[in-house]
Amino acid sequence: MSNDTLLKDPREQRPLQQGTDSAMTGRISFYQELMQQPVSLMFIDSILPHHQRLNYALIGDTASENDSFSPKITGPHSFQVGMVRARSGNGPAFHTHDYIEAFMPLTDHKWRFYWGETETRVDGEAVIGKWDLISLPPKLWRGFEVLEGQEGEAHILGILEEHKVFSSKDPYWSPFVIQAAEREGFFADESGKMQKPNRYAQLEQEMLSKLEAFKHD
User: Can you tell me whether residue 203 is helix, strand or coil?
Assistant: First the structure.
């Protein structure tokens, strides 16, 4: 290359035609579009009081037990990303995974994380807020919720190690959660897939309407 050749800063360039770069097709998730794809009953605990929330799959299955989900970004990744919207006193029940998951609150709300070495005992807890990050190791039992007494909806981002969907139990739930979910007609089979009650469609819509209504409080 001649020393007289002037290179143009890529930052100052614009593509000749918008939307023609196939390398990035399907690799952007816009928040407003994501909000149109909530899953109100993604897990068997989602029907239970104190665990009602809206889940969103951005990349991968994000440990879903419900096969009716569609990630916004479907290309292969070595990690998975999801988001949860919940109100005060709600969040995932006590469970564990075979892989690491990490969480970062996105709104001005406090989240309580609690954990234990066994499925029936809590050994520790921590409260985290916006931009804080918590990383939970494999096999550690954990649950988390929006701290009581806060107004509005809280958002939290979850990042999970890559794993195969519906190949085994995932999540593993505490016996208390399994029993409570079964009373509502929900359980997961040995592949980790939710077995839905006959009234599932009605329950799903009722839960969605209930949780979406909170936005207008």
Answer: helix
Determine contact, residues 42/208, Cβ cutoff 8 Å.
no
In 3D, which of 146, 143, 71 has the Cα closest to residue 106? 146
Residue closest to 55 by CA, chosen among 95, 83, 91, 89:
83
Report long-range pairs for 19-24 (Cβ below 8 Å, ≥24 apart). Answer: none
Confidence class of residue 18 from pLDDT cuts 50, 70 and 90?
Answer: low
Q: Which residues of 52-91 are buried (b: 16+ CB within 10 A; e: fewer)?
A: bbbbbbbbbbbbbbbeebebbeeeeeeebbbbbbbbbbbb
Strand, coil or helix: 32 = helix
Give the pLDDT band (50/70/90) at residue 2.
low
Mean pLDDT of the chain: 93
Which phi-psi region, left, alpha or beta, contains residue 114 (left: φ > 0; alpha: ψ -120 to 50)? Answer: beta
Band (4; pLDDT cuts 50, 70, 90): low
What is the predicted pLDDT for the residue at 5? 76
| Cα torsion 81, 28, 214, 106: sign | positive
Q: pTM of this prediction?
A: 0.92
The structure tokens listed for 129 are: 């807020």
Tell me the CA end-to-end span of the chain in Å, nearest whole number: 64
